[in-house]
Amino acid sequence: MADLIPAMEKALIDFSAGNVMQPVRSVITVNPPGGFFGMMPALTPNGLGIKIVTFYATNAKRGIPTHMATIFLVDPETGTPLAIMNGTLITEMRTAAVSAAATNLLASPDAKILAILGSGVQARSHIAALRLVRNFEEVRVWSRTPEHAERFATEVGAKAMSAEKAVRDADVVVTATNSKTPVLKGSWLKRGCHINAIGACRPDWRELDDKAMANVVFVDSREAALK
Amino acid sequence: MADLIPAMEKALIDFSAGNVMQPVRSVITVNPPGGFFGMMPALTPNGLGIKIVTFYATNAKRGIPTHMATIFLVDPETGTPLAIMNGTLITEMRTAAVSAAATNLLASPDAKILAILGSGVQARSHIAALRLVRNFEEVRVWSRTPEHAERFATEVGAKAMSAEKAVRDADVVVTATNSKTPVLKGSWLKRGCHINAIGACRPDWRELDDKAMANVVFVDSREAALK
């Protein structure tokens, strides 16, 4: 993770500088059961390939991961297949590393309190990544299911509490839920707080209310954020 | 191949009936060397997945295939990866099977002369597939490189000749070239001739001249054909 954060910072710079061809991901919706099959291709000066991500919320009931990812790389010189990789762990780490790169640049240098809304794999990887860019004295966790929050907090050395309590006075907040309706209210936010909003990946989902969104917003891709 | 032709006929019916979700393939162009990375996802009542096809004309000089394909399937119920397959042979067979299904329905029932423009893998698979739906007495072959045409003709029991000679009086014609400019002239065509035009896969490529295109045209996907 310590190597991945600067690599992701470089990737974001390359993308914003126009050195990467990365069409906005396309998604096939599978009904029933309400699953998503997402395709994320990219061409960089060093590589060419695609990540396929599936997201099935209904998998939670089956006891299998809701997100699964597979990465396929080819040689940009010849199109010859180079690698097919399980991309699930890479996705968990990459997403958190991007948040850490952003947090490093945008959050208060003396941030002390981290609040995580969510208790899934992204919550876990975000704690690991963000601890590398700030010295947090306190980590707070909320999850819709209180037992999940308690279990997760115990594992990572955090405190479980209500969303409002977790967010108030926090310097850095992560929203990493599958919520379709806001879980974070702008009225809770401390002045200067930095939020990494990870979860709402569909145009009709949201984690932040209007007041929270009325603050300064940074996005990785303007084109993707507007879709 | 004998099983694949009716399967492809069913797939075309399902697609035209709206039972298949198949976004028009998207393509990343890789410059240099002028390669293409194409993505072809589909969701049917029975399956969900994507075929990745790379096309690098420059591979011919390297002695490796110009087209390579990989197929990735997931379980439509859960998004769990099911299979990753080399799709190169499947692509060769499937394309020819679709032409055979079309030829079976559209060509003269007593077609006797088959002309193939091109001498690559699609030329080969088309001869195998089309022989299953019509009893050809003569197979004619043209290729831009005469030695390729001769070698191929000897292999498949065909006669090599000029494109015009091959096409005149032919009942069924296949264009399976990588040409960017027309190789088939409408003025050569016998009345009632059926053409399978396979090769021109980019919007600015073409194998048929205007006069040939002025005949009745059938396409697998109107949306894709107009792009």
Give your account of this protein's structure.
- The structure is a homodimer of 227-residue chains.
- In chain A, strands 1-2-3-4-5 form a five-stranded antiparallel sheet, covered by helices on one side. The first copy, chain A, has a five-stranded parallel sheet with strand order 8-7-6-9-10.
- Helix content of chain A is 31%, strand content 25%.
- By secondary structure, the first copy, chain A, is an alpha/beta fold.
- The two termini of chain A are 30 Å apart.
- The model of chain A has no long low-confidence stretch (mean pLDDT 94).
- At the A-B interface, strand 1, strand 2, strand 3 and strand 4 of A face strand 1, strand 2, strand 3 and strand 4 of B.
Feature tags:
homodimer, 227 residues, alpha/beta, 5-stranded antiparallel sheet
- Most extensive chain interface and residues per partner: A-B, 33 and 33 residues
**Succession of helices and strands of chain A:** HEEEHEEHEHEHEHEEHH
* Shape assignment of chain A: globular
Question: Which regions of chain A have little confidence, pLDDT < 50, spanning 5+ residues?
Answer: none
Distance between termini of chain A?
30 Å
- Secondary structure: number of strands of chain A: 10
Strand order of the largest sheet of chain A: 1-2-3-4-5
Strand percentage of chain A, roughly? 15-25%
Secondary structure category of chain A: alpha/beta
The radius of gyration of chain A is 18 Å
